[in-house]
Known about the structure:
The protein is of the alpha/beta class. Helices cover 37% and strands 14% of the residues.
Amino acid sequence: MPTNPTRDRINPELIDTTPKRRPSWIRVRAPSGETYEELHHLMRVKSLHTVCEEAGCPNMGECWGSGTATFLMLGDVCTRTCGFCDVKHGRPEVMDWAEPERVAQAVMKMNLKHAVITSVNRDERRDGGAPIFAMVIRRIRQLLPGCSVEVLIPDFKGSVEALRIVMAARPEILNHNVETVPRLFKQVQPQDRYEWSQAILTNARRLDADVLTKSGIMVGLGESFEEVQETMRDLRSWGVDILTIGQYLQPSRKHLPIRRYYEPEEFEALKDFGLELGFKWVESAPLVRSSYHAGEQVRALSNVHRALYKDQ
């Protein structure tokens, strides 16, 4: 049965119930407007999930209004219990092989410019649900040529075979978030391994060098500034092209606490550092999330996108 994702798994020493006042630069606007209402209705009609809604993304209104949405596939119940995530966890339902068609139809109906496809973890499956990613990429291409596709995939426990299934469909962007620094991995995401993230990102580059690779880091969980920089060095050495860095915001008091809020100047410094390391694109600001400005990244950087749609 699905449960709250962190109730029994977080180290009690990490729980901090002291209220923390949000600084002035953290301003989350409630999504609203005609476009938002239309898309929200469409999601319900087609029985679809978006990580925008499930994770309470602060940029949902802006992204939906600009023609970008992030779909959550493989159901809405995760097999892992990450301490930052508000998605339900437990035993997932059987795989829904009609889900890619529904998502692709919604992408076409919304006339999206850029679709981001992510998923819960499905550790009960050897392939981690990789075929679903490939199916939805190909179907979107059939129904809405010109819409770029980014996949934000789980680590598949480092499986090259599962990754190859996704890469064969040639998304414009292959994204996998490390989320935090190596020292905090077991506290923040206890079933994940840093080596699995490394395997996914380095092998994606080897399988298809034309597909952009991307990763993201949350800050404010107790890492040092220097540890963030070291993780950025790792990601660049793995061949990652695009990096996102944003402030962790605690979904509830049952989730990992915010250890500190980074200053806007620190985000700027991390952006400058990332560009110096050689990342092609760095988004670094308090409310940055993985899909933020994703469509712009594709249009500016993707060889796959230009090759597929050069005649349009």
